[in-house]
Amino acid sequence: MNTNAFRNFQYNINKVESLFENNSSYTLMLIYANIITVFEVYLQEAFVDLLKSDDKLLKKLTESSKYKNSKITLNKALKIDMNKYLIGMTKNLVFHNLADIEPLYKEVLGVNIRYTDSILKSIETRHHIIHRNGYTKDGEKINMSLNLAKETLITFKNLVGDIENQILQKYVQ
Predict the structure, then answer these.
(1) 141 - beta bridge partners?
(2) Residue in 39, 58, 43, 37 with CA at minimum distance from that of residue 167
(3) Rounded mean pLDDT, 1-16
């Protein structure tokens, strides 16, 4: 006799092993989740790289609605490299949380993240895949298809392309 947790582990590890043999909907869910992860990494890298290259943007970060009321002790302020501190703080943000990230992009970089309800739904679906192994909070299985994964890929490629174009127009001469 085994616990439910162990039985679930065995069931899911067998799914992982089956990936060596075929492209199942389980594989598609992992691919789907990775699409949003790649998007999140893009947002972080683009933001941090721009902050590193322009002290004016770091100042705008400190004046943003997210950080304008942040406080650190004088003792800490004297001991740290403020630029490194701000970059480190930024790297700790959850970049797929567009409710936090979109205003930062707009206020600090002057770049709009033009997301839609379908993009938010995709991020929520990724959350279910990553944190609930493909099930909703209500225990409903996520139905993944090749078409949905491909459509999501195209949607996020287009969104990143739009963001990238704005960055290039504003910061690359």
Answers:
(1) 135
(2) 43
(3) 60
Please report how the helices 25-53 and 117-132 are oriented relative to each other, as an axis angle in degrees rounded to 10.
Answer: 110
The phi, psi pair for 21, rounded to 5°, reads -105, -30
Tell if the pTM clears 0.85, that is, is over it: no
The domain limits of the chain are: 25-171
Q: What is the mean pLDDT of residues 27-31?
A: 87
Q: Note the Cα 100 to chain centre separation in Å.
A: 11
CA-CA distances (angstroms) from residue 28 to 61, 69, 128, 138, 161? 37, 43, 14, 21, 23
**Nearest C-alpha neighbor of 152 from the set 132, 125, 128:** 125
Over the chain, what is the mean pLDDT? Answer: 83
> What is the 8-class DSSP label of residue 135?
B
